[in-house]
Design a protein that fits this description.
mainly beta; twelve-stranded mixed beta sheet; 12 strands
Length: 235
């Protein structure tokens, strides 16, 4: 990934398959400024599939010819950031916030490269952590612990409010955080689906959630309380 991208507070490097032909969402006379949207699919080591919303402009591909190569079925390598935007008047199955990958560099992998899904975000907690235990249990019979966070990440394009999920020891560490605390989170981007029930509607809607799954959390507050993040294990 480009070194300038790596130094920022919001970065993602990911490899996946384009599932739909990119369509134009913002036209421009200059090919570099045309904005496209499509879907990106990748398979986790566990076999579960993630499907993300992907946006890129012409300049991310490098040349006008390379834009044409980014089509359904090809594997691409992406360097960019995670962005969010409000959705006005969403449908029942839509979230109020659109969360997507914005590619600043996109290239067809030919030949294929090693798999990648690496995220780094740096920002401030903007909502109290939500700590809970799930119904599922570990191999030792203990309930799994989970903490959900929303991190406000500033950039020259505005502020993105990125959902994060932490498990196990990382969930315990994250639960000590408060609104306004500065954190650094390292992990991977993932999607998951759940059924959303709406009053007055008979069938539940299948809703997709996008979030950063934290492998490691850094925070001054965590260290002050003697809770070293190195004790956590990767998810």
């Amino acid at each position: 990934m480009d070194q300038k991208i790596m130094e920022r507070s919001n970065t993602i490097g990911i490899v996946g398959i384009i599932t739909d032909k990119p369509y134009l969402i913002l036209d421009a006379s200059e090919w570099r400024k045309r904005l496209y949207e499509t879907k990106l699919e990748r398979v986790r080591p566990s076999g579960a599939k993630d499907i993300f919303i992907l946006q890129f402009d012409g300049s991310a591909a490098g040349t006008e010819k390379r834009i044409e190569e980014i089509t359904k079925g090809v594997e691409v390598m992406i360097g960019g950031e995670i962005r969010t935007e409000n959705v006005y008047d969403p449908r029942p199955e839509e979230n109020r916030v659109k969360i997507y990958i914005y590619a600043e560099m996109i290239a067809v992998n030919d030949p294929p490269v090693d798999d990648q899904n690496e995220v780094t975000i740096r920002g401030n907690i903007c909502r109290p952590p939500y700590y809970r235990q799930t119904r599922s249990r570990t191999v030792k019979g203990k309930r799994r612990t989970v903490t959900n966070l929303i991190v406000a990440v500033n950039s020259n394009k505005g502020t993105n409010y990125i959902p994060c999920v932490c498990f196990g020891w990382q969930a315990f560490l994250a639960n000590a955080l408060e609104v306004g605390d500065y954190v650094e989170i390292y992990g991977r981007f993932q999607s998951r689906e759940y059924r959303k029930r709406i009053d007055g509607q008979k069938p539940p809607y299948l809703v997709t959630v996008y979030e950063v799954c934290a492998n490691k959390i850094k925070s001054r507050k965590i260290k002050e309380e003697g809770q070293e993040e190195e004790r956590g294990s990767d998810v």
